[in-house]
Request: fold
Amino acid sequence: MKVIEKVEAIKQQELTAQENLDQMYSVIEEKNDDINAFVELDYERAQKVAQDIDNRIKNNKETGKLAGLVIGIKCNINVEDFIVSAASPTLKEYYGSYNATVIKNIIKEDGVIVGLTNMDEFAAGSSTETSMYGPTNNPNALGHIPGGSSGGSAAAIAADMCDITLGSDTGGSIRNPASHCGVMGFKPTYGMVSRQGLLDLSMSLDQIGPFANDTSGIALMLDVITGYDPYDPTTFERESGEFLDDIECESLDNTTVGVVKEFMDVTDEKIDSQINKSIDNLSSLGAEIKELTFEDINLGLPTYYLINYVEFFSATRKYDGRKYGERIEEVCGPEVARRIQIGSYISQKEFSGKYYKKALQARSLIRNDFNALLKDVDIIAGPTVPKLPHKIGEKLETMDMYAYDVLTVLANITGIPASSMNAGRVNDIPVGLQLQAKPEEDHKILSTMSALEKL
Reply:
């Protein structure tokens, strides 16, 4: 049953919100010890919400867009009275004292928040192995990483533990695990969704977005969380229309899809083979395929990480052990420590021009060149991640871990929307098709996903 069909079934009381919660919770109880997708659960709280929804439906009262859907939230997004730890010992006893704007919107639309999902510590990672709660297992490739940093949110969808989850994406942290776990993940245009209440990894790159098993779940959540927020000055006011309208798309006539040679060149040949099948499907749906080149690809990772290091160092200065939590440098894991140390070093006055300012110049160059690339196409299609996920516990060099992000960081550097959806399997492990579009053309991506989904 598609997510939108489930909402309708709940509103018609063919399925109650309580029954949906109980079904999902039984799956969580059965699988979570092995998968480790959820790090905190509150069934009683969720039950009260579900019962209230059912009572209002029985009394012919209005209910919201998410009525009765079970929702998981990445544990770096503030949810009142949950431990919002960002999977770090720094905040292991920090209870959210307020709801982030996206959480307020979910509650207003009658989503049933069941718990918080696992992640890499402070979102600094691509594997969900750096969490203080231990690694998350990939439900669709057991024994392998689910990707990161939003690995728990992707795994919860892949394991059918909830209907929709939220993650955050700084350099691919939604799309990377969506690819590895074989689910859908969507990073909206920067500024489309409020980040108020998100524990920042890198403020100029971060964006909150949804995971689901079908486009209707993505569309529903985007309709709920997008929009201007006076508490987040990066958001913008724009009438963008309903995302649910996009899921009716069945044809890609009058759509031009760009395929970038360099994206395929850096990707494993077996993954490329699956991606090419998806590109053939786009063509069969009526899309015109256009070959493109992007010579800045090697600039992406160094530009991204230099900006990330400096902004993360700045964001973590509040974790000094005085106001809340522990002093971050005393308790954090090695990847967080590495980013703080490098960020501190290159933030020094004598080095900022040498590194950070050059990274900002490179960012402008990449943005201009990528916008030029998008000028004559509606969508860019290609692989989400260039290689298959490694096995949990396998030791990787730092640069090998960072290499997972080479195809996803460009969307964060440029602020454009991007998504990942399943394109098939290699060695019985899911691989993802990444779709990217011009800033604020999120609807084109969802329409394309919908047409492919129907095919």
Summary: The chain has a mean pLDDT of 96.
